[in-house]
Amino acid sequence: MKPASFRYVAASDVADAVALLTEHGDTAKLLAGGQSLVPMMNLRLSRPGVLIDLNRMPQRNTIAVEDGLLRVGLLVRQKEAEHSPIVLAQIPLLAEAIAEIGHAQIRSRGTLVGSCCHADPAAETPAVLLALDGSVRVQGPQGAREIAASDFFLGYFQTALAPDEVATDLLFPIPAQGTGSAFLEFARRHGDFALVAVAALVHLDAEGAVQGAALSLAGVGPSPLRATGAEQFLIGRRAEPAVLLEAARIAAQGIEPTDDVQASAAYRTQLAQTLVERALLIAASRAAREVA
Amino acid sequence: MPSVKNRGGIGDDLLRLEDDRLLKGQGRFVGDMRVPHVLELAVLRSLHAHAEIVSIEDRGASALPGVVHVVTGAQLQEEAPGLFALGQPPLVAGETLYVGQGVAAALAEDRYVAEDALEKLFVRYRRLPVLSDVERIVEESGEAAVTLGDSVIGFGEVEPLFAAADIVLEERLAIGRATAQPLEGRAILAMPEGEGLLVYAATQGPHGLRQGLAKALSLAPELVRVVAQDVGGGFGVKNGVYPDDILVAYLALKLQRPVRFQEDRREHFLSTVHSRAQVHRIRVAARRDGTLLAVDDDILLDAGAYQARVGYGRTTAVTIPGPYHLSAYRCRIRDVHTHKVPVGPYRGAGRPEGNFVMERMLDALSRRLGIDRAEIRRRNLIEPHEMPYDTRIPDRNGNGVIVYDSGDYPLALETALKAADIETWRERQKAPLPDGRRIGVGIAMFTEDTGVAPFEMGVVDLLEDGRIRIASGSPAQGQGHETTFTQIACSALSQTPGQIVYADTDTALVPAGIGTFGSRATVMAGSAVHLACKKLEDMVLTEAGAILGEAKERLSLSPGRVDAPQGGLQLRDLAASIEAKGEHLRAEAVFRPEQPTYADGCHIAMVAVDPLTGSVEILKYIIVDDCGNVISPRLVDGQIQGGLAFGVAAALLEELVYDNQGQLLTGSFMDYPLPTALDVPAAEIHHLCSPSPRNPLGVKGVGEGGTVPALAAIAGAVEDALLPIGGGMARQLPLTPERVVRLASANERQ
Amino acid sequence: MQAEDRIRINLTVNGSSVSQQVEARRTLADFLRYDLGLTGTHTGCEQGACGACTVLLDGVAVRSCLIFASQLDGAAVETVEGLANESLHPLQEAFHRHHALQCGYCTPGFLMAAKELLTVNPDPSETEIRQALSGQICRCTGYENIVQAVREAADTLHGAKGRDA
After folding, report:
1. Where are the domains of chain B?
2. Which of A82, A99, B182, B603 would bridge with B709, disulfide CB 3.0–4.6 Å?
3. CATH of the domain spanning C6-82
4. Measured between alpha carbons, how far is residue B669 from residues A156, B196, C45, C50 in Å?
């Protein structure tokens, strides 16, 4: 199918994009990588009257460390972040997660910020942002603000972004020394949307006890979820297989996926347990290497 | 069998002759053709599986700039009732019978605009009850269930054998609904020419399409010329006449302008025939030593809304006995009417399903009796000394019985077992892999009728420049006929490939033809081309003899030449002198065999299965294939490897899921997963060669052999992997990860 | 800037300058095929899931069905038509030698995706090739010959570079 008619305008900078959003209201859509939006447009399921192209804005493809945060600008392509030495050194979890997004020819266009704004419940980047207690920096007519990931993802394809706001950056806190992480995803084929995906971080102390843990899951609810019960269970315990298995059980008990054509709720729950356990095992062993 | 004289003849490892244009982006697919003033067709498709169309209102569609014509089913029926006389109507006038059926259409100078017009057509539907699940339909209606076909085939008396058997196994086995998804969708371009039409189509059967269009439009067939150029994959579904084809042809005639339809991906899911979709209730009777006695199967085929094509359920039925001895056989096939896309043949055309159920039952027998899977097959195989083997199965037309022509099935099995190094794998699978996955081994054997009836025609011309043009009624959709048929011609005429010109299938050039499907092109069209070449050779030598004053028996052909004991002459000089007389040398030959040939082989799959996630990795895949003489070695292997991809798809990945309202839930590449480069293993291919005595080339078909046994081999391997942990029988395809997990925890340990 | 339904774009396609007015909604794939007559780029799904329409945009492999021509002012696009000069590109040559195409409909997309792969990773392993091409669907070949062809093209290109150096 072919997209319905629309008018095109390239935003010169973020302020311009905000002004254009204000001018055109509900009929406008922002275009970044377009790897989720344009398929919807081609099927005429999305039919903006005005398409505001963000791709021509200068200096919005920054990947930088600022104040202990990794900042990813709004035009950073998934492929750039995946291979960025800064990302690989500071938050390897993010690079691992990005590698699971679609295919190389999708990641070459798709952006991390765009993925978060699209808010597909099975998406990888939102799960990582949530696991790291990151946030989204947005700009609107009243200026800039930051929205914590836990407040940003509201449900199926829904975020806290106001209609006249543009998300400009993702802010990922850099994990402390001694943290190990892992991102595991299960999909029908490599590159498909995750049936379940898990981001796990484990921080061990010198004795091998868990000092901090973060777990988020994608694909198991309307938006990515933190497995807080499992995280709390892990604190102070040694990262042994039996402990990690128990944490995985707790995590799986805490989700309420629904049946859909790709997987039943029961299967998703079992997958979640299996993936959490495996992700924790990897994260813990990586943490142990960090500590040693 | 012609001898191999020249580089480029039969059996030579020739690189493909058709690659150059395709590699450079200069393919000639229907959508690639630049046609002045062409109108692009877009079809408004029903949103409901079963509904009455109350009204369709044009709220500005016709008035849109660029829109040339808008028509609804009701209008079309009024102006051209003849179009509605055959089977599926070009557009629905009364009741829609599946989601995706055309209800109105728009023509515009550009597809974007044509789709804009569709959005301005407002349809009021009155919804009607939907038939969706075949087993439920039969459960509720019993013998009163509406079927589009109901037949029983078999031989001997099964019931006494079941009564007396040591072992009787009964299972429900199911194969999901599937779709072919060639990367190029259906495409057709019709251009007014004189009183008739010139049609370029992405079709596997130009002559059938011509006939169908001529009939629908009440034109003499010779007024419709159909040409098939490059076609982007077919796999069985680009055959016959689709409603959209009739619409395009009709509108081109009516408006006297070229009209083109290019199916998009969503339309392919919703309007091109689906396939497989079978549920079997199968019983097997056997002796305690594993000897098969009888098979009794009852197939419910989810046929969809129309009987679109020759029922492939019957092909399933004749495939089931395979390479095994049976004393009696019975199979009932019911094509149950549902409100879904009609079904039709697709890569294997019913054979993979038949093979799947039989091989699964052998595995079940092996498990029940504690006899190794290879051994249980070995004990039942037809032996080479029994060839030709009278199976007693009525043939597809019901006119005779199926007689296998040649093959060494035990050798195929032993060759595969040896190549697979089966003992090592049996050892390896005793313990799980370090990551917890389990190894399994699956074996499946097959026989396949290839080169199906009724005939094919070859047309061979000596061109004015001395080259030889070959043509047939079987066009290519990627199989490489240009190369294969050129090799056949090179051998028949002692030429080199540069001397041969391959012509696209064109109904103006080839008077009659059937098409490319059912692993038939090389057997049927290849043989026809061979026979036509031999006729032309005789004509050429006769003409040359007259010029040279030699008896034709003393003449022979060599590349570009007729050789005589003294001297000879160039073919181009001979052609020039013939043309100068106002004559032309053309040979036509029809190949019409009594019976198809029977290819066979054995597949062995080694897999690793994660019982917790249900993921399946194919670690190694062995194929032993016997397709008789091989014309083009790398093309044959290409067909087998490509066929395997369809087997992997059916075994593990692809399934069309409908809800009970007839809505397709898996209607895009996002949720109908085609295998990628990470999913298809490299097959290790071994060839046996039992030439067929039923055609002059000694060939058997190979287009489907890579697919047919792969479903059973892979399913058997997955099941085998999970046996030690109490896994159940793999009864339903595809084995999605979720189904594998359920299988792993089935607790069927015996 | 004003939102427009027709946009003037200046870009290069296979090295040649193109200046054209395009409808805002025209996809790059349709622009190439119908406005420029470069029909080597095919569309298979128009939702980014099959890869048949893959071209290089400023050297990067992208789905041309998911980009609007209106976005491309100043861009450089390479399509399959730009691969061969007097002789075939080593990738085309290798696809031919390894029987890596059957119907040929998806082939242009594979060639362009493979070209990018060998630029960023001149010496890929078989697994890396399969991963990089896992977004490209081929319904005919079963992939193995494509993988072997890309591997051989890597050797050819690599070897050629080695000799040059």
Report:
1. 19-24+454-591, 35-128+187-264, 274-452+595-744
2. B603
3. 3.10.20.30
4. 21, 38, 8, 7
